[in-house]
Amino acid sequence: MKLLLIGAGAVGESILYILQDRDPNGKWLKKVIVSDHDLDRAKEVVAELGGDKRFKAEEVDATNQEEIVALIKKHDCDFVMDAASPLVSNIIFDAAYEAGANYGNLGTFSVPMDEPKYGLGLENSYIEPMTKYNFDKHADWKKKGIMACICLGIDPGVVNVFAKFAALYLFDELHEIHIKDGGNLTIPSADEDSIIFGFNVWTVLDEVMNPNVEWDKDKGGFIVDRPFAGEETFDMPAGVGINTLVKIEHEETVTMPRYLEQFGLRKCSFKIALDENLVKALKVINALGLRSMHSVEVNGVEVVPRDVVAAVAPQPKDLGSEMLGKMCVGIHCKGVKEGRTRELFIYQPFDNQLSMRDWEVQAVVAQTGFGAAIGIELIGKGIWKDAGVYSPEYFDPIPFLEIMDEAEFEFGIVEMESEYKIVNDKKAMAQIYADAAKLKKMASKLNLSKLSM
Predict the structure, then answer these.
(1) CA-to-CA distance for 208 and 249, rounded, in angstroms?
(2) Where along the chain do its domains lie?
(3) CB 364 within 8 Å of CB 327
(4) What is the DSSP letter of 108?
(5) Reduced to 3 states, what is the DSSP secondary structure of residue 361?
(6) Under a CB-based contact definition with an 8 Å cutoff, are residues 289 and 172 in contact?
(7) Architecture of the domain delimited by 2-149
(8) How many CA atoms lie within 13 A of 65 on its CB side?
(9) Which of 57, 128, 65 is nearest to 101 (CA)?
(10) CB under 8 Å, gap of 24 or more: what pairs does 290-295 form?
């Protein structure tokens, strides 16, 4: 693979660290062009990779499709990984298509209406719903013989793989998938007024403040609701504890029904735990019109309010060394196995101090980077391959989980209260994977226990 990375921010940097660790001798990763609008930042990331000759820094304007195409062709890149702002994701996607390169991204762009109507139907609240731009071009990509794998990260990404695995091997009918993103991260030195953006500021403003989306087949499809709706508490495993979660806009609620309805899926939602100070700040930003993408004139200069917020807010790449605790992201699944109801939580925990020690980036960033890096590896090795536009649920989940296990990217399964019971011993755990011979070697490593709700 000859890889072009666009976006040398915290997640882009973590992807490269993990790829280098997974393939230090260049068996399949032959060349990596690290590009960013800030050439100094790209050079800084390349320098951090310790003089590995495969990595080269380039400057790129990701708003300029032809410039991206020229860069792909200049270095004969066959894969483009988009780790840039969601604002330019469609441009990068189209540039990869024009240049004939395969493509991956961390998420997609969406455009909500200024006055969403909420209720049933994406078309009543969105000018451009998430993933639509990409999936609408599936036939074009297929005809050209190239592949785009969108939504490669932790969520979306790893959780999509968990969902496909659950549908294939853990349920006879998988009725509900509820993605839950939480943690217990704290910054001891933070004062009571500190505001922490754990991820790309622009992305947070989009995902949290956009109309949120869930899918309910019995109610007619996609249900759109106001920001911060659907509050609930959930007891996260791995020592994380009780989290208060709310619904936000996220791609899984669109991609999972697309691929998993055939397994009986009827409901899909996404909820996240948000710091109280961040919630207050986002509400103020929204009330003041500061999340708007419509430019305004200030002293004769045109500025975009959201760009100003994104520029002055605390940056996630500058956080990490002080944070204590874990992230925990997973899927809460409900369905039927052997005629009995079954309920599971499949999760991926990530300790921030270990993340800083091993990868020199905070846990939220490393989690995302790991999901992307594993997907890139599978594509680079020709294990995940096809022509067209897909998300991770389309592909075989077993190779992905095998790399997670091999790379010690921890994950576990919690058996919750249900009619279908599993005792916590190796024989029973191995039986779960009787139809997935490759996973039997991993069965004893999975943490099966009861979670009290």
Answers:
(1) 7
(2) 2-149, 154-361+397-443
(3) yes
(4) -
(5) coil
(6) no
(7) 3-Layer(aba) Sandwich (3.40)
(8) 10
(9) 65
(10) 291/205, 291/209, 293/87
- Locate 283 and state its tokens: 């509400």
Residues 264, 375: Cα–Cα separation, whole Å: 26
10 Å CB burial of residue 421 (0-12, 13-18, 19+) is: exposed
Judge contact between 376 and 152, C-beta under 8 A: yes
Query: What is the SS3 assignment for 189?
Result: coil
Q: How many residues are given for the chain? A: 453
Cβ within 8 Å of residue 240, ≥6 positions away: 182, 183, 184, 325, 326, 328, 349
CB 104 within 8 A of CB 379: yes
**For each of the chain's 453 residues, which pLDDT tens digit applies?**
999 999 999 899 999 999 999 999 999 999 999 999 999 999 999 999 998 999 999 999 999 999 999 999 999 999 999 999 888 999 999 999 999 999 999 999 999 998 999 999 999 999 999 999 999 999 999 999 999 999 999 999 999 999 999 999 899 999 999 999 999 988 776 667 777 776 677 778 878 889 999 999 999 999 999 999 999 999 999 899 999 999 999 999 999 999 999 999 999 999 999 888 888 888 888 888 887 878 888 888 888 887 888 788 776 656 556 778 999 999 999 999 989 999 999 999 999 888 888 887 888 889 999 999 999 999 999 999 999 999 999 999 999 999 998 998 989 888 887 676 544 444 444 455 444 444 544 544 444 433 322
List, in sequence order, every residue forming a beta bridge with 225; answer none if it has no partner.
212
The torsion of the CA quartet 363, 368, 373, 379, rounded to 10 degrees, works out to 160
Is residue 447 within 8 A of residue 432, CB to CB? The reply is no
Domain formed by 154-361+397-443, architecture:
2-Layer Sandwich (3.30)
- In angstroms, how far is CA 351 from the centroid of its own chain? 18
pTM comes to 0.90
SS3 call for 383: coil
With b meaning 16 or more CB within 10 Å and e meaning fewer, what string describes 299-335? eeeeeebbeebbeebeebbebbeebebbbbbbbbbbb
User: Which letter does DSSP use for residue 155 in this model?
Assistant: I
- Write the single-letter amino acid at 349: P
SS3 of residue 300 by DSSP: coil
Amino acid code (one letter) for 271: K
C-beta of residue 22 within 8 angstroms of C-beta of residue 383: no
Largest CA distance in the chain: 72
